[in-house]
User: What shape does this take?
Amino acid sequence: MATTPVPATTETGPPPARSVLRDTAFLRLWAGTTASGLATWALPFVLGLAVLHRELGAAGLGLVLAARTAGFLVAVAVGGVLADRHSRRAVVLWSALAAAAAAPLLALGLGRSLLVMTLAAALAGAGQGACRPAFQALTAEVVASDHRQQANAAMTMAVRTSTLAGPTLTALLAAFVDVGTLLLGIGLLWLVAALLPGRGAPAAGSVAGPTAPAPRASLRAEFVDGIREARRHPWFLAGLGALTTVIALGYSATGVALPLISRDRYGTGWVMAAAMTGYTLGALGGALVTARRRPRSQGWSAFAGLALYGFAPLSLMLPVHPAVVIAAYVVAGVGIELFNVPWFTATQREVAPDKLARVSSLDFLLSYGLAPVGLALIAPAIKAFGVTPVLAVCAAACFLVPAAAALAPTARHFGRPPGPRAH
Assistant: This one.
């Protein structure tokens, strides 16, 4: 009878004193990942500036962003297979270079050819999608297992800081340069992401040295093999289901409802801006906590954190003081990182190393891929049933689905419980 393979890492000694933040290899990877995250965030914002400057129409913006999403969804699955089949560093290099090449094409098509911009956006999305699972797997190669939670916390803090400071920086740059130049700047960020990270250690299970070439399975067969690996981990399937639900329903509901509530109930856009800023600050705080926090029941703690997002739609249901809405978003931000950081760390620890990129691509494919579906359904649902019932359903899902996921086998610890295993 086949049994589930477990990673061969049974370290019992005390963790090394050296901080991951003093590791040059990690810092290079961190800087490259940060550059890719900033470039990913900046593109829709800069394209929005193009609409304001009448260099791109609203319908054109929707088409370009849809093309980028389509490119991402196709490439994230292929990128996961390629990152397990070849060098993760090489996949990061070529995918980021593809995204970098898309930037001047976007600038070239701006105000001239919507077709060129659409194709370039698809290329940019493909580069972004292919590099995501490769970066995730490369982290496991560069960082020792006992430092990965700290490393993942540092990664997510960089993303949140970029989200917080990015609008101000871009707005300042836009006062001095045009949209085309900003698009070229995004290309430079992708070049940093391509060239800066170093090569990680070979993944466990890889074959070193010259060997006779073995026949390769098809991309589809290897992706299906990654799905089989994911199915061996009940905690992963439960967590992915809960995360996808919170993003597709919770994120989508608040993304559509918050601007409406801010305008119609409070008569100002300030509440929306303050709530989103509070969410980002809360996420930064959550990442700081998880950098050193090691709860005994890590999985249950993470699912509890994920469920905290339910307070965001809940706060929008009733005519409460704006401070309550902002506080709810801060709590939601803290909670999402109480889930994200242990989730990434457990995936890197528990999944077979030679299948890590494929399993990570499945994570990104579902959690990101179903978000546009949620956005497409929430607006008609609000129009048909009203904002309060829709928010109530979404809040209930955010609370109940993570609680149900916590009951899955191995969910309590996100895999094997800590400590020596009985024989």
